[in-house]
Design a protein that fits this description.
- About 45% of the residues lie in helices and about 20% in strands.
- The protein is α/β, with parallel strands linked by helices and about 290 residues long.
- It has two domains: about 120 residues, Response regulator (Rossmann fold, 3-Layer(aba) Sandwich); about 140 residues, Reverse transcriptase/Diguanylate cyclase domain (Alpha-Beta Plaits, 2-Layer Sandwich), CATH 3.30.70.270.
- The protein is globular, with a radius of gyration of 23 Å.
Length: about 290
């Protein structure tokens, strides 16, 4: 079952905002509303949204400035935006598209047309990116491509490594600290790969999980190095006062790993390799 998409509607006219909220809720979307630019920016940071419908004319800062600030933050820079413009504001429409907005629709608008545009944009945006936006590492499509190449031979290995406990960690310290921890793991593994002459394919599967793919012997050799380096880095993910004070409710981050080797095959497809890795992952003793 697909996840319900969440929309943020930024519109200061109460009747228009209510109409859009009611209509899109009836279409099965989760809908958030904001009546000003500052409120929209706060809500977009506090709630993960899949698409923003953004009026250009707002009572505090205009829609263009809201868009600029959305693009300045990692959490919101990739969220698709549809501008609402007045029919006569051709220059505004061009400005929005030049800035990188996904679409615009003039007022007065057809609800059916807006719905079609929303559906099309969400369909395109849900295609998985080749490069992960958080870590800058290859994402799932490129990971599958690398594994597909390996399946043609037997002398390969794959190491899944990552962190368990990120959900509780994020609840305690916030999504920025959680994302910083994920990014730090990616940088640490990138450094290890460089030290080994970039002998591995390194990818980010999602959340706190990373994969190293290379020859079977190289993967077996690098696994203890990666585990030891990550274990020594874990305390630095926490605020200093919690490291020193060790509160009893400290959310524990634990390293978990799994390995698969080509000699275990044949595998029907790359997804089967990832499934086996995820099934095998085990948290290591702290």
């Amino acid at each position: 079952m697909s996840r319900v998409a969440t929309m943020l509607i930024v519109e200061d006219e109460p009747e228009t905002a209510s109409l859009l909220e009611t209509y899109f809720r009836a279409q099965g979307y989760q809908v958030l509303t904001a009546a000003s630019g500052e409120e929209a920016l706060s809500m977009a940071q506090a709630h993960p949204v899949d698409l923003i419908v953004l009026d250009i004319r707002l009572p505090d800062i205009d829609g263009f400035e809201v868009f600029r600030q959305l693009r300045a933050h990692r959490r919101t820079r990739e969220v698709p935006v549809i501008f609402l413009t007045e029919k006569r504001e051709r220059e505004s429409r061009l400005t929005g598209l030049e800035m990188g907005a996904h679409d615009y629709i003039p007022k007065p608008f057809s609800l059916q047309e807006l719905r079609a545009r929303v559906q099309n944009i969400l369909r395109r945006s849900r295609a998985e990116p080749a490069i992960d936006g958080l870590t800058g590492l290859p994402g799932r499509p490129l990971i599958l491509e690398s594994l597909r190449e390996q399946l043609e031979q037997s002398d390969w290995g794959a190491l899944l490594i990552g962190l368990e406990g990120l959900e509780a960690f994020g609840e305690r310290y916030g999504f920025v600290a959680r994302d910083d921890a994920i990014r730090a793991v990616g940088l640490l593994l990138t450094g290890i790969n460089h030290e080994n002459g970039d002998a591995f394919f390194l990818g980010h599967i999602g959340e706190g999980w990373f994969i190293l793919i290379g020859s079977r012997h190289q993967v077996n050799a690098v696994a203890p190095q990666a585990i030891a380096r990550l274990k020594s880095a874990l305390p630095y993910f926490y605020p200093l006062q919690d490291v020193e004070g060790k509160p009893p409710d400290l959310p524990a981050l634990r390293i978990a790993t799994a390995r698969v080797q080509g000699t275990e095959g044949p595998f029907p497809d790359p997804e089967a390799v990832i499934r086996r890795l995820l099934e095998r992952r085990e948290a290591l003793p702290r």
